[in-house]
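Training component of the fellowship. As part of building independent skills, the fellow (R.M.) carried out the full modelling exercise for a liganded target. The chosen ligand was protoporphyrin IX containing FE. The inputs are recorded below so that the supervisory panel can assess the work.
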Amino acid sequence: MPPGPPGHFLFGSLQDFSRDALGFYTRCAREYGDIVSFRLASKKLVFINDPVIAGQVLLSGHEKLHRSTSFMKHYMGLLGNGILVSKGAYWRRQRQVSAPPFSPAHMQAYARDIVEITCRHMDSWRENSRLNVTAEMKSLMLRIAVKCFFNIEQTDEVKTVDRAIEQLSLIASKRIRRPVNLPLWLPVPENREYKNQLNKINNLVYGIITQRQASGIQYDDYLSAIINAKYDDGSRMSAEQLRDESVNIFFAGYETTAMALTWVWLLLSQHQSVLTEMENEVGGLPRDRLPEIRDIERLSFTNKVIKESMRLYPAIWILSREADQVFELDNYKIPPGTIITMSPWVMHRDARYYDEPELFNPHRWTGEFEKSLPRFAYLPFGGGPRICIGNRFAMMAVVLAAVTIMQRYKIRIRSKRAVRPYPAIILRPASPVWAEIERRPG
Ligand code: HEM
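Fellow's submitted model of the complex:
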């Protein structure tokens, strides 16, 4: 196995990882190099910090590897066998039938929804007041996701699903950090709470699917696409498959985007000259209509701001794979069951690829720089066949929501203390981010 921290004889590096996972990963790369191994309790992990070796995992090794479920298993009741966790031929088939709603052809309609919902969402803000940015970006992206993918205008039921997923995630993230867990079937309070929340989600999601099927109405959205999707043999997805895929899209799709947008506001607040430059660019958009998809390519600086923000604060800070058989990687034979990880957080802050990596500098994203950047040195959406299915949608949603908000409001975050990132499955601010908002004239 590659070199790495020896750790505690029983728990390995679990304590260091649980205390500060980002710091632990960063130290591993600094002290042990491009391929590192360590243990979290009984689990062996390999950590890759080199774009070429990452390519061996994401691209050439793709057929032999699957997304690791060692952490995800704590979410298994929730995710079922959906696209995030499924493997092999089954995953390939599901990915194929799920892809059409994420194709460029659908983006124009999504763009209209994104902008309209952002405007309606802002209508509920009080002018010149304080705003919990983390919570507001989450509820905005939730409204956007359920409208675009399930054609649901936000209802109390969707909020219930959101809260239930939040509760499940809290429990799952505790379970990930514990060396030993009680089996889920034991009726202890934590397990009962898990099941209770899961039942709520299942009731609602099955309800939404059944209602759509019964209505017979065809929408141009994700839900209709997967209900209508036919496999090669002419069969369609079962109710359980529809439930799993819907929950997976919901789970993967909106908190990531919401946190990406939250980090943008934070970084802009800390970098006045970048903020001014972006405000100038947004100020140049036509005033007589709302932003549209065709504006995005004109917003070249804004696009760079978002890219740079996703570099410093990638919402998915760690990617993981696992092999069922020995996997050869950079002259090492990685035993089956080892979790192979790559960290966008660490890779994106590597001085070999980014000058002054800690500096928030959107100007670095010139065409020339992008060409010179090794493939997989920038991977906020992963890479290879399991690249984020919603990446096009996500980029568009972050850009359009940011400019629509910026047209109407000044958002100023004046936190005295630096906001620490908290690496749950999704990288989020460790505490709520508050902003003062001021309505722009006109
Ligand atoms: C800024 C927002 C987002 C970020 C940073 C993000 C990031 C990622 C990353 C890094 C992966 C790959 C993980 C891996 O290789 O193990 C991924 C996969 C995935 N993402 Fe996203 N994502 C975002 C938004 C979305 C949206 C909007 C959707 C859908 C509505 C979505 C759906 C998915 C799905 C289904 C997968 C699994 C794909 C597969 O395994 O075939 N994501 N995402």
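The panel noted the following from the submitted structure. The two ends are 63 Å apart (CA to CA). The chain has one domain: 14-439.
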